[in-house]
Amino acid sequence: MSISRFEDIIAWQKARELNKILYIALKQNRDYYYKDQILRASLSIMNNIAEGFGRKSEKEFIHFLSISNGSCNEVRSMLYLGLDFNYFDDKKFSELYKLTTEIGCIINGLSKSIKLNPTPRTRTKY
């Protein structure tokens, strides 16, 4: 499989989907601190994938994937708070939790793949 653009990375695509869902779900939410924090963390997932992809080395890309995964965990943590304060119902919480878990697994798999099969910066193997 050949990936020449960050937009082709499945974790980035899923993170974009997560952002769209969160923005819609929190559109009317007036807890601006909560809303700002979870949305920043969610944006960080996709933006760190994109930024890392554009870096000069595989080591840097892996570092940015690690940051992205940390942001994914932050979103998951914030989802619990949103559930506690009734910002999300159980169904929406489950949907978002599942998506963040899936994104984290994909990021971890990508990172492991890069470590096991380093490639030239042409990024043709993943």
Q: Tell me the Rg in angstroms.
A: 15 Å
**CATH class (first level) name:** Mainly Alpha
Q: Please count the beta strands (DSSP E, at least 2 residues each).
A: 0
Mean pLDDT: 93
Can you describe this structure?
With 126 residues, the protein is an all-alpha fold. It has one domain (6-116): 23S rRNA-intervening sequence (de novo design (two linked rop proteins), Up-down Bundle). It is 73% helix and 0% strand. The chain has four helices and no strands. Helix 1 runs antiparallel to helix 2 (32-53) and helix 3 packs antiparallel against helix 4 (90-116). The longest helix has 27 residues, at 58-84. The chain is elongated, with a radius of gyration of 15 Å. The model has no long low-confidence stretch (mean pLDDT 93).
Write a concise keyword list for the protein shown above.
about 75% helix; de novo design (two linked rop proteins)
Write the layout of secondary structure elements.
Blueprint: H1 10-25, H2 32-53, H3 58-84, H4 90-116
What's the gist of this structure?
This protein is mostly helical and 126 residues long. The chain has helices at 10-25, 32-53, 58-84, 90-116. Helices cover 73% and strands 0% of the residues.
